[in-house]
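Q: Got a minute? One more chain.
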Amino acid sequence: MILVTGANSFLGTNVVAALLDRGMCVRSLVRSANPIVEKTEVFRGNVNDIADIGRAMEGCSVVIHIAANTSQDLLRFDDYAFNWECGEKIARVALAQNIERLIFISSANTIGSGTPRNPANESNEWTKPYTESLYARSKRRAEEVVLSIFPRTIIINPGFMLGAYDAKPSSGEIIARTVGRKVIFAPKGGKSFVNVCDVAQAVANALIMGRFGERYLATGISLSFKDFYRKLGAINGTKFHVVTIASPILVAIGYVGDLMRVMGIKTALSSINMRMLCQYEYYDNSKIVNELQMRQSAIDEAIKDFLHFRDSEFCG
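A: Always. Here it is, folded:
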């Protein structure tokens, strides 16, 4: 039996679907379940409650811990305490119940980013502005806490995922926000875009592959925002003009968000987040491709999957 936390999230739903496709027995620790998760053994409980974790983990051999607070508008570092506190509880219960392995889902932002000519790998130094991001710091601390307690852990660090089952949407907002627009304003930087199905398959492969204590960058094709929007327009037949905003202007706008945050107003707008958007978050995924056999699907398919899902009954 495999326990999945955060099973009804974007990545979580795709992981559950990948596991079910392989005929695996899956238990989902959730408060509510979507139609995919309902196909598993659903344990309704609080993923941050050690008693619920213990009961949910009984009889399991592997735990995939995806649940996290991914909000970008929280004001203080301690507001993200769920990420490392929950990770600690999961690790302690896994140790007590002699779980065979723990697969912990983190973020590529806990690893230093690269450039178009020199993409980063898992050994890159973690640098600004990511070391100043409250969310990235919380996930980095969670990685350290989990590994210190449960050495039989494999860490997956996804890049910018796109695809189906992005119900909020989360990262798919980069596609949704273009609907009906003639002009798109884009930052100067870029992302390592990856098909969420590829990440989910790599997570499933980590059940029997990978080395304990290692990080694996689950990333894909590196594109500037401008090039991404051009690709999106070609795929969905939308004609819009892409205008690149100078980095100093974006950072200046971010300072307005900083002021709002000082006033206690929750907002994702901040100078740190704006600086991150201006970076080229380009990564080398050769480690996960070689050791976890991650597929490298075209990002075009992920975009089409998101568009199809957005119009499906599942999405309402």
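A: The first helix runs from residue 10 to 21.
Q: Perfect, thanks.
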